[in-house]
Design a protein that fits this description.
With 390 residues, the chain is α/β, with parallel strands linked by helices. The protein folds into 2 domains: 124 residues, Alpha-Beta Complex (Aspartate Aminotransferase, domain 1), CATH 3.90.1150; 254 residues, Aspartate Aminotransferase, domain 2. Helix content is 37%, strand content 15%. It has 11 helices and 13 strands.
Length: 390
């Protein structure tokens, strides 16, 4: 087993990004030590300061994701909760919904639940590389199709889906487009309004550099009138009424928020706005391209997803010969200090599409704080494992 002083190459950024920018740690500590108040629940200075922290996080996220009104950014504890709000809050028995065959369980499980309760579901088949043809989405639409929900990029194949083309189709038909941007928010340029996305779910702890326990749903104009809240309760507003507020964002934000986490998210998103998402994307694409190029020279490695880095996020799933993904990932960790994720990645539908079900694959997920040394270390380790030397 690797000793405690082994250099760690963290390549599990699709699960959660690490490390975080120093400014994120500082913002969370500052909130905890110097502010600490409950936003919207009091009128004293610390409560007001806490509310300003949340507003900054809301405004930064809106700028990054192309949302014109920051009040349309509703905070949740993660993308899963946001997707449940969007899916369970929108659909009713008799509705039809279209999705893809590479979705994460945060989309598929709510959809399967609704399917068992009278909602019709069509999962459009993607290619073995995880590619989705917008024409196939159009062909799956029916008179009772209420919504299309797709991921922006697969957390397994890394494939970036054509959400803008799909948005053109759904907008012309008056159908809601929901997008899971958990893997792309902050890492791939994306404008909710330009792409004609109606509901956009994001998480804070991946490429937005925030802490775990942060995320949200961006709600397009008018959609708030069609969504049922997941939670109802105290919002700090309209306390004289026992009915839920009917305005954004309060109608979907019941309970004391994770303000210390949102302080970290505000700092993380501020850093991305300063750098530019395009520059983040360029850096990660270079790392991915170098890794893919190096894999081509290795024997016994099966790589899934698109062949070019430009067509994918910095996620590369692979298998090594007849070795199980768990064996490979364990060897990478214990012998080389390389941290990856094996298995099904909470996306069995995607693995069925890639024909890697039920064993799955080993996922390498690069991030902004990785460098060429991480790529080299991963390739050298895979060469040893694939040749039987490790």
């Amino acid at each position: 087993m690797a000793s405690s002083n082994t250099v760690i190459h963290y390549l599990d950024n699709a699960a959660t990004s690490w490390p975080k920018p120093e400014a994120v740690y500082q913002a969370m500590e500052r909130f905890s030590r110097e502010i600490g108040g409950s936003p919207g629940r009091s009128a004293h200075r610390l409560s007001v300061a806490a509310a300003r922290v949340i507003l900054e996080a809301r405004e930064n996220t809106a700028r990054l994701l192309g949302v014109s009104d920051p009040m349309r950014v509703v905070f949740t504890k993660n993308a899963t909760e946001a997707l449940n709000l969007a899916i369970l809050g929108l659909l009713s028995p008799g509705d039809h919904i279209v999705t893809s065959s590479i979705e994460h369980n945060s989309v598929m499980r709510p959809l399967r639940f609704l399917e068992s309760n009278g909602v019709e579901l069509t999962a459009v088949r993607c290619s073995p590389r995880g590619e989705l043809d917008p024409a196939d989405v159009a062909a799956a639409l029916r008179p009772n199709t209420r919504a299309v929900f797709v991921t922006h990029a697969s957390n397994v194949a890394g494939t970036i889906l054509p959400v803008e083309e799909i948005g053109t189709i759904t907008r012309e038909r008056g159908i809601v487009l929901g997008v899971d941007a958990a893997q792309t928010a902050g890492a791939v340029p994306l404008s909710m309004e330009q792409a004609k996305i109606d509901l956009l779910a994001f998480t804070g702890h991946k490429s937005l550099f925030g802490p775990q326990g942060t995320g949200g749903l961006c709600i397009g104009p008018g959609l708030e009138r069609r969504l049922r809240p997941l939670l109802r309760g105290g919002t700090g507003s309209r306390s004289e009424f026992e009915e839920q507020p009917d305005f954004l964002p309060d109608m979907f934000e019941s309970g004391t928020p994770n303000t210390v986490g949102l302080a970290g998210l505000a700092a993380g998103t501020a850093m991305i706005l300063e750098m530019g998402v395009e520059n983040v994307r360029r850096r990660e694409e270079i790392l991915t391209a170098a890794f893919l190029d190096g894999l081509r020279s290795l024997n016994g490695i099966t790589v899934y997803g698109p062949p070019a880095a430009a067509w994918r996020i910095p996620v590369v799933s692979l298998n090594v010969g007849d070795l199980s993904p768990a064996e490979v990932s364990l060897a990478l960790d214990e012998r080389f200090g390389i941290l990856t994720r094996p298995g099904l990645h909470c996306a069995p539908a995607a693995h069925r599409t890639l024909k890697t079900f039920p064993d799955g694959a080993v996922r390498f997920a690069f991030g902004f704080f990785n460098d060429a040394a991480d790529v080299t270390a991963a390739l050298e380790a895979l060469e040893e494992i694939s040749s039987g030397k490790a």
